[in-house]
Amino acid sequence: MEDIEDLLVGSGGAPPGFRLPLNAVGVNPRKKTKSKPSKISPLNDPPKIPGTQTIYVKTFGCSHNQSDSEYMAGQLSSFGYAISDNPEEGDLWLINTCTVKNPSQSAMNTLITKGKSSKKPLVVAGCVPQGSRDLKELEGVSIVGVQQIDRVVEVVEETLKGHEVRLLNRKTLPALDLPKVRKNKFVEILPINVGCLGACTYCKTKHARGHLGSYTVDSLVERVKTVIVDGVKEIWLSSEDTGAYGRDIGVNLPILLNAIVTELPPDGSTMLRIGMTNPPFILEHLKEIAAVLRHPCVYSFLHVPVQSGSDAVLTAMNREYTVSEFRTVVDTLTELVPGMQIATDIICGFPGETDEDFTQTVNLIKEYKFPQVHISQFYPRPGTPAARMKKVPSTIVKNRSRELTSVFEAFMPYNGMEGRVERIWITEIATDGIHLVGHTKGYVQVLIIAPESILGTSAMVKITSVGRWSVFGEVIEVLTQVDVQKAPKNVPNQEKLPPCSNQYESCACSKEPEPCSCGPDICGGQIRLEEYAVSKDDSSMENRGIKNPIHWLLRKRRNHESKEVENDIASGLKNKHDWAPGGWGIVDRALLVGIFVSFLMIVAVIMHLEFRTLPSK
Fold first, then answer.
1. Who's near 578: CB < 8 A, 6+ residues apart?
2. Cα–Cα distance between 153 and 103 in angstroms, integer?
3. Radius of gyration of the chain (CA)
4. For 32-72, what is each residue's pLDDT tens digit?
């Protein structure tokens, strides 16, 4: 079937939040002829009143896709539709797709097949239909393009009537003030632009999202103001390449970041997280971006994909930077931003990658010991230049992926954090259903056991143990407005720095201890333990173990359980019974034996003293 586009020639369509009549939307209507059935069979049941049905929403892919789904769910909900994550409850399935890798598109195909076999009306959104509109799997389903998400209500209504709708072409960006149903009410995913300026040979997303299109600084700042009033505690800036922001409208990323930071609450209750950025477009702004990352209301974290440690492979990928330039980004940010955390991506087995190329990649990861590395095997995407290149044998690709994963998982990036006191921002419940999840200023994940009532707040925690993927903490104090006002004022002889809002905030300080605008005792988000009257004995684990073996055994037991919990949370277990430790380990037995022996010794001493007193009586 030919693509059916928006029929309002020269018009931007309906204003946000308003539906258009049927004749304003391109559709493939039901055919009434009996002798020749239509391509799209009408629904067996008569159509219900629009806005009374339940819509199952499934999202694949990146945070930008998640934001699009939240906008679509918000519009549908505002028109009366119920939103569900249970496919069985859905009268219609809305599938938001990802085209980055084969597995995500295969999952989409499986879901579409299942929906068709269940006679469910289907609407497919996202990058797959936008970039590959003629796929066989998309026959007989409605399509809404990545820049047509503000028309989703129209598409859903016509699909429920049995029509097939395709809305793909548009020259303007969707409005940022559309209704939205957030997956996490404390987190706003804010798209700052669509598309990119790159031309990576392996990338299919460019086919879908297109060339760079940036939102204005004013529109983004207004959105930030709105979501803060809504109670959002984390704002994630999302983009296919954050660093390229604004180059199409005459501004740049530092201009946007500084404008947003100005609007963040001075008490540090809402944090900003900067999204993924490729190296080329931040090289010229490293110092300005570092200054923003030092701000107390901005996470000291950045996702900078390198993809390979070999210049030859980067050239074949058309990544437009060298390994040396990537090192410059990492080294500069690490030097200028205290506690800076950097995540990166690696593609294993790109066409033409030699053993030497791969060795260079492994050495790069070993050198920097990144706390997060997203490792994937190369997947040839149809229509991309890399799909026509000579492939590395699949067995070699898998072996390289396994080897690099083993190297990465051997790191313990959070060693040394135990015993620290950190401020964290608590925004979600862990997948085990027991722990709450918070993040430090460096965006290190901290798991705590606390009541759900503190979700959406900030707290001081003491780090009690560390794992591979996260750390565990104990809450010392939940911060309130009263706590915020404890910040020292008018500290003399200070270097002029961005003001920290309260005594718990990290400051723009160097690695050498020197005064900063938060006071002399606070730097890099850490606080001297004496201020919280934390036991000074914590500084020497060995001495404590010698003085109190029972305490040592209890601590070993707690650390052992923490590692089990962390591994299970990392695996995404949602049933709290799935992670509960079962059986008695060596530490448990040793602890039990120690307690039993201590009890016998106490009894023996009491009996001995009793017998010694009998003759005197």
1. 432, 568
2. 29
3. 28
4. 444 444 444 444 555 567 778 898 998 887 888 888 889 88
